[in-house]
Amino acid sequence: xxxxxxxxxxxxxxxxxGVRRLKPAAGLRSGxxxxxxxxxxxxxxxxxxxxxxxxxxxxxxxxxAYSYLFRQLAWVAVGTVALLFGATFDYRKYRKVAVPGLIxxxxxxxxxxxxxxxxxxxxxxxxxxxxxxxxxxxxAKLFIILFTAWFFSEKPERIHSLTKGILPMAAVxxxxxxxxxKQPNLSTAITVCGIVVAMMLxxxxxxxxxxxxxxxxxxxxxxxxxxxxxxxxxxxxxxWDPFQDALGxxxxxxxxxxxxxxxxxxxxxxxxxxxxxxxxxxxxNDFILAIIGEELGFIGIILLLALYCCFLWRGVHxxxxxxxxxxxxxxxxxxLMVGIQVFLNIAVVTASMPPTGINxxxxxxxxxxxxxxxxxxxxxxxxxxxxxxxxxVES
Length: 395
Hints:
Blueprint (H helix, E strand, L loop, with lengths): L1 H21 L10 H30 L4 H22 L9 H14 L5 E4 L2 E7 L2 E3 L1 H19 L7 H20 L4 H18 L3 H21 L3 H10 L10 H13 L24 H33 L4 H25 L17 H19 L10
Antiparallel strand pairs: 1-2, 2-3
Helix pairs in contact: 2-3, 2-11, 2-13, 3-13, 4-5, 5-6, 5-7, 5-12, 6-7, 7-12, 10-11, 11-12, 12-13
């Protein structure tokens, strides 16, 4: 009798201990470990390069070499909190805020054209909020990803209807794009449109619609360049030959190309860039890749691109193994956002497209972008935690 009671007590203890082990994870997986490693590697590398690129600019502006480093570290701390929140908060609950988020994003974009809008370098992309500025264009990308994922996961058959799916989504995207272009910020508008179109392809959009949109966009761009004297026409003319006005409108791109060329195969060494010595304007921002190329050379850029590829690989893996359509589309949108933005930044820095403000994900200086990307990485991790256990998503 006593042996039986002892056996029951041991059984109860085992069951209790088993329950305690499950409670911290709430029945979920621990998440994609490699994705976390690649995200951390990108952020750490970004901090190092921001410090290196901003060294002399920081001394010139603030009298100390460490001002941009400390600000970036502060944003990394805030971004880490956002990442942890994104990794632990159930991504399925974002469905409820998809429509309100889209509206809120549009309101933020409209506020740019009120007295709250802050202008710098001939662009109005910031809303002043005391010592902190908000870039609605950065968060607009996340809002439209969330809305697109909700819109097509609720009724996937919408993608096959021109009136109930394609045109409504196109209208929403065009409104966002117009508000962003008016800042002006063509690269972010291209990113938003590219994300939505690519997400629709994931759902099942027919290619003929993509070709039609491409032809329409190409015709519009040709009209702007050939028949107008607008801001974008001037930018396009700079793109054809940045050295034509190397001391004027083409100065930043020309200095970027000089930095990349002088880096050679292995670079001049970390911290030894010449172009960051007040030649390349604000080298820690959109053109930080030029400083990376100068200091770490072609090999350094290739290794950075390999790290991005690893991040995107894990993101695609998370999307493929997502437990539902909403998770698949949400993860796909985040992966597309990072991939498109890396591509556009490289194109701008190498003069392969007209110069316009587009930061390098996780690397460029800037709190809004870093916060948004780190939170997005956290959302990817949360989706991976809900993946079925036989998918190997943690491998």
